[in-house]
Amino acid sequence: MKKIILVLCICVGSLSYAQVLNKSWKAITEMKEGPWFSSPEAIAIAENVLLYQRSIGGWPKNIQIQKELNDTEKKKLLSEKDSTDEITIDNGATAQEMLFLSKMYRQNTDERYQKAFLLGLDYLLKAQYANGGWPQFFPNKKGYYTHITFNDDAMANLLFMFKELKDKSDYFAIKPSDALVNQIKVAFDKGIDCILKTQYKQNNTLTAWCAQHDEVTLLPAKARAYELPSLSGKESAKIVLLLMSIENPSPEIIQAVKSAVTWFEATKITNLKEERILNEAGKIIDKKMTATENAEPIWARFMELDTNEPFFCDRDGIKKKTIEEIGPERRNGYAWYTNEPKEVLKKYPNWLKKIQTEEPKKKDQQPLTNENYFVVDANGSGNFTKIQDAINAARSYPDQRIIIYIKNGKYYEKVKIHAWNTKISFIGESKENTIITFDDHFKKMNIGRNSTFHTYTVLVEGNDFIAQNLTIENSSGEVGQAVALNVNANRVKIENCNLLGNQDTLYTSGEGTKNYFKNCYIEGTTDFIFGDATVLFENCTLHSKKDSYITAASTPQDSTFGYVFKNCTLTADASVKEVYLGRPWRIYAKTVFINCTMDAHILPQGWHNWSKPEAEKTSFYAEYNCSGVGFQPQKRVSWSHQLTKNEAKMYTIDNILNDKIKNWYLTSK
């Protein structure tokens, strides 16, 4: 009986492996994560993946990597390690292998998988053009391989990958360093900018994209003989899904999506159905299009740039009006129609609803009019060249949100959002290149003991303010107190922004005010986050530039919460070794770190009393479930706290910001 069971187990195991081997390499990489990725079969395939990877970091395409290799094949692959021929992002190459390695690493912490993944990431970053696009092959580029390639969703797939990595989601098991994440963010923003710039204008109206665009002119370009410059019903779909996945989209992204959806609606075909004739082996031996009333919508893969008329080509490059007019080799061996835009049209209504402002618009109100939408461009192409001029032109206490879109550039000015300038949004073109900077500091102001509060680069006094995708900087250097952003208003949301400075970079004030910072980078030296407001910081990076203190809260005595940091990362310059999490500017200070990662610069004692013994009894400093070398709960000062699981449950966005304000933060754009 035991022998029979053993044989049965072997057979079942072999059958399982055979079922996997019979899948395509693409299908294997897309398998659901789970125990199989720790099996001997998966480990054997992973060895092949490592062998096929070239020293530069990328992989060739169209290889069934799961197939067993003999010794001769392995030696050949080792001899080709330094070759840069045929390394590509086409047909899923490189991205698929990286996804497989990530799934392997989650089940088996083999550092070779992580090293190979990061090497692949380095390859992708190096392969990107300065304009944000990617060539089909890198570094050996020739002919149409030099074009920016959207073909087969190559570039869109890379940017989806970069989005997961920059957002620090759990999709990939391998986590790049913070420095590398910053590079990925820059690459992602450049890629999106390239997509926006390559969207084709037809009679001055935005439409869709070609499968490839010239890397210099950005215009639609030719690839193979039968892949002529055209608008693509297939590749454009994945591009739009990518744009729709971006949180808090810029006005340009919103316009791009709306225009593409209009184009999809105008070009869908509902009176044709594709029929495929298969042989006994299941291979397509003929395709034909039949007239069918109320057929499921489809789109042509190639459409004329100026008329949207579908066309088809054989290898002679001569355009035909129907697939029946081209030879069987190309007719049957190529996807001439697609239904992929259906997914865009399915998701579009919810996306459109999501991007609406938080308040219902009156029937007679139109969004983005000349009264509630201004463009600021230092180069003169917008409504204003100065940000303050746009603020001053805005209506006081408006009924609907006022968008101030700020183009890339360095704006050297001191900016104030007055108390009557409510519902203002600053939307930057890009976080790295839209920079508001000024250089006031305590000694320069020289107006007495309260000079600090006058040193701001940006002062927010108007409620319901939003800032996204930009940098606010105090450039005065290490000269003492110098505020970059001073927030003295309620319901302020700062997202995907850089706040740069030294001492006192961010001041959040206003007793009873509640504010929200998400996905921000905040740097400084001493007390670079200080004030009395209740503030939730999520997924932010707090970077110390000097041995000193991160926070200096002055929380009012009757406030339930003060500063709450959730899922944040605490980093420092290489020379920085001794940093406190916080000290009490006023004795009822409240500061809590939850699920944060703390590097080695955080001192074991964690907190300082600022020579105020009474603050040890009145302040509340706490941590929960943090990680990293700097998280040493057993060595913290005795008057700080490590929250229990039940205590930590009270630190939700609902409780910290309360339901009404929380809903504003989550839905406002």
UniProtKB/TrEMBL annotation:
Note the Pfam families from the entry.
Pec_lyase (PF09492), Pectinesterase (PF01095)
Q: What is this protein called?
A: Pectinesterase
**Lineage top rank: taxon:** Bacteria
Q: Where is the signal peptide?
A: 1-18
The pathway that the record names for this protein is:
Glycan metabolism; pectin degradation; 2-dehydro-3-deoxy-D-gluconate from pectin: step 1/5
Enzyme Commission number(s): 3.1.1.11
Root EC class: hydrolase
As its record notes, the protein acts as a catalyst of: [(1->4)-alpha-D-galacturonosyl methyl ester](n) + n H2O = [(1->4)-alpha-D-galacturonosyl](n) + n methanol + n H(+)
Q: Which Gene3D superfamilies match?
A: 1.50.10.20, Single-stranded right-handed beta-helix, Pectin lyase-like (2.160.20.10)
Instruction: Give every Pectinesterase catalytic domain span.
Output: 375-658
State the organism of origin.
Flavobacterium polysaccharolyticum
**What is the primary gene name for this protein?**
pelA
Provide the alphabetized UniProt keywords. Answer: Aspartyl esterase, Hydrolase, Lyase, Signal
